[in-house]
Each structure stands twice: as C-alpha cells, then as structure tokens.
Amino acid sequence: MTDLILHHYPQSPFAEKARLMLGFKGLSWHSVMIPAVMPKPDLTALTGGYRRTPVLQIGADIYCDTALIARRLEHEKAAPPLFPEGQEAVATSLAQWADSVLFQHGVAMNFQPQGLAARFAGMAKEVIQGFVSDRQALFKGGSAQPLEPAVGFSQWPVLLARLETQLNRGSEFLLGNNACIADFAHYHPLWFVTSNTALADALHDYPALRAWMARMADFGHGAFNALDSAEAVKIAADSQPSSQHFGAFFSPSGLVVGQRVSISAVDYGCDPVEGELVHEALDELVIARDDERAGRVHVHFPRVGFRIQAIQ
Fold first, then answer.
1. For the chain, first and last CA: distance in Å?
2. 192: burial class by Cβ within 10 Å (0-12, 13-18, 19+)?
3. Domains in the chain: boundaries
4. Average pLDDT of 236-254?
C-alpha cells in the first residue's frame, strides 16, 4: 500500500504543520489518532521507540520528524514546492529556526499560569499530572531544555514584531508571494498559541501577521479519512519497504550498509531506535527493523538533529 498515513493527534503543533503541508500539496491521506502521551503501543510497533508527533507512514516505510516528512511530500508531489528554487538554503534555515526557537517560545506561552489553566480546563488532576510528567521525560538526556514561561513571555513581542515587519513589506508570505517550508514552520507555533483560549488575542496588535495566518489556514488539510491504528500496523505488515532512496549513499562516520546502528534525536525525545543500516544520504538516515506485529519496516530520519552511531 502506498497511501499516505499520518499518525497524529489534534492538539499537536507539529502535526498541524504536517496537516497543513498535506493540504498545501492537495494530497489525500489517512488519519490515525495516537495518544498525546506514552505509551503508544501501535506507533512504537512501527517506529521502534521514536515517540514524537507526527509520523508519516507509507506502507512499510515510516518517516519521522516534519523536516523529513516535508521532503518526502516534495517527492510525492513536486508542485507547489515547499523548497522553492533559488531559496532552498534560506527557506530551510528559517524553518529550522522556527521549529526550534519559535516553537519553544510557543510552548512557554502555553505554560504561563493562565495558558496552562485554559489548556487543561476541565481535565482531571491525574490527567494533567500525567501530561506534565510525560513532557518532563521527553527532555531527559537531550540538549534542549524547556524555556522558562516568564522568559518566553518577555521575548514573544520581539519575535512577533520581526514577523510583522517582514510581512508588511508587501509579500503575501515570508519569502515572497508563494508559501514555502519557512511559512509552515513559523505557522504552527503561532497556531499553538492562538488555539489556546487564554491566548487567542496574542496576535491582536499584528494585523499583517493575522492576515498571513488566515492565508496559511486557507490551505486546509487536504482530503482525509480516519484509519484505526491497529489497521495501520497491519498495513505495514502486509507491505514491503521501498527500495527507492533519494540521494547517493553518504556516511561521514564511515558506517556501512547492513551494520547495526542506533538513531536518536539530539534535542528532546531522545529514545533510541535500533536497526540495520539500509541507507545514508545527505538529508536522510534509513534503518530496517523487524517487529512481531508490523513485520519488516524501514524507519527514516533526517540527518540534522539526529545522532547515528554503531552498536558495538
């Protein structure tokens, strides 16, 4: 099966980035709802331990991290482009900044006392504690640390003012009159903030930014239908991983195909995934692993932001 399957949950900002990219590309997909916190048994059967949201599945190929998902969608459908010709480095660098710095500020805004109260309104105390404990574990062993809410709140106007100035220059999107990966990476942290009822007016003083947000939202999420997570695992088991790889083999560390390796995120959500090295390219790492439920799967990671090392 070569259909696109997105594993996500509604409130995830990075999932909103992926959903909007699917809409931008005009692609059809299957929607698999996953838990917001661990354990995630069906997702783990596919990824081998990678726990961040979202994950894109195409048959027995599993794509982790929206930076790589964006590149896979670009291969799926070239137009409209997420990486515009002549602006590849600028667009990618801006997206990487937004996915880290701007995102951390968006999280800090949500974790102010009033934001936190609104985000968890009506939830049982044990549910809230479970979420907080899960997110604390998410940062264990990684290079990133949560931004203090007070610091994020203090710096937030600076970041919005910069975007407002940029959008007031006359272009509809950040790098011109067409959206690109930089726009989607900037959109999801702002969406995460404004989707919180206590922070809904966070863009009140930024009309150009509000208009840009509306243009981005107009891309929608494409056509999709619900799919059960157990069925997604069965689809992987009934499929064969693709033998097609994008880019020539390239291993700065001198690893070889067939070698046992471990791949983990560097910043947060650093749970390692072990498997057999299938391919290394400039922007992609691919390992094969076997699961008693999902069968033989290939798990794909971006190179930037991830660590690959041999298992001795």
1. 35
2. buried
3. 5-80+223-310, 88-217
4. 93
